[in-house]
């Protein structure tokens, strides 16, 4: 049996089943009505309106990503990291402010030049040893003619020195306005 015989048998089978075999010419669309379906006809004809699967007609379709964000929310990781760093910094700062003085120097009776030299040597030694908080006793300036000299010298030294951080006056029992506490920054690897 060759291919022609198979085709003839198939055609006979189609005719006996009552179906006509129609060969397509590609021109069948010309005989059909080719007018576009109007919007009103589309809305009124339920066959022409196709609904997406799983969504009812009265609900609006929502982007799955938007739905997920509504359900689970958004976490700003950068803001959370900044907040944690700020909290750690404040805890670290409060710990440093509350810690006792690890070393102190008394500058009473020294001139301004002598106090700068001694202060520089003292801060260098503390910085190298890893001491974090020191007390500098400079006096209130009761024996000075105009304003307290050593208090101004100590303040300008603290402002200029890169190794020194926050400073302030201690409680009255530790000297009050006649002393200054200073936080020494941690030593860098490059120093």
Description:
It contains six helices and four strands, in the order ααααβαβαββ. It has 191 residues and is α+β, with helices and mostly antiparallel strands. β1, α5 and β2 form a beta-alpha-beta unit. α5 crosses α6. It is rod-shaped and about 130 Å long. The model has no long low-confidence stretch (mean pLDDT 77).
Features:
191 residues, alpha+beta, 4 strands, rod-shaped
List the helices and strands and how they pair.
Elements: H1 3-16, H2 39-44, H3 64-72, H4 77-98, E1 103-106, H5 112-129, E2 133-137, H6 149-160, E3 164-168, E4 179-184
Parallel strand pairs: 1-2
Antiparallel strand pairs: 2-4, 3-4
Helix pairs in contact: 5-6
> Nearest-angstrom radius of gyration?
45 Å
Taken as a percent bin, the fraction of beta residues is 5-15%
Intertermini distance = 98 Å
> Widest sheet: strand order?
1-2-4-3
Helical content class:
40-55%
Summed over residues and divided by their number, the pLDDT gives a mean of 77
Q: The biggest beta sheet, please?
A: 4 strands, mixed
> Total number of β-strand segments?
4
Are there runs of 5+ residues with pLDDT below 50, and where? none
């Amino acid at each position: 049996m060759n291919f022609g015989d198979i085709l003839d048998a198939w055609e006979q089978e189609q005719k006996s089943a009552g179906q006509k075999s129609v060969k397509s010419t590609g021109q069948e669309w010309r005989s059909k009505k080719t007018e576009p379906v109007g919007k009103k006809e589309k809305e009124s004809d339920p066959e022409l309106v196709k609904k997406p699967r799983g969504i009812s007609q009265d609900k609006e379709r929502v982007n799955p990503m938007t739905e997920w964000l509504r359900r689970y929310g958004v976490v700003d990781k950068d803001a959370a990291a900044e907040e944690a760093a700020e909290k750690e910094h404040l805890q670290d700062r409060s710990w440093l402010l509350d810690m006792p003085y690890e070393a102190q120097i008394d500058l009473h009776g020294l001139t301004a030049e002598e106090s700068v030299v001694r202060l520089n040597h003292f801060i260098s030694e503390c910085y190298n040893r890893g001491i974090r908080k020191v007390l500098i006793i400079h006096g209130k300036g009761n024996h000075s003619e105009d304003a307290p000299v050593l208090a101004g010298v100590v303040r300008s030294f603290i402002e200029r020195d890169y190794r020194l951080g926050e400073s302030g006056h201690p409680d009255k029992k530790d000297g009050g306005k006649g002393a200054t506490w200073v936080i020494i920054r941690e030593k860098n690897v490059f120093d």
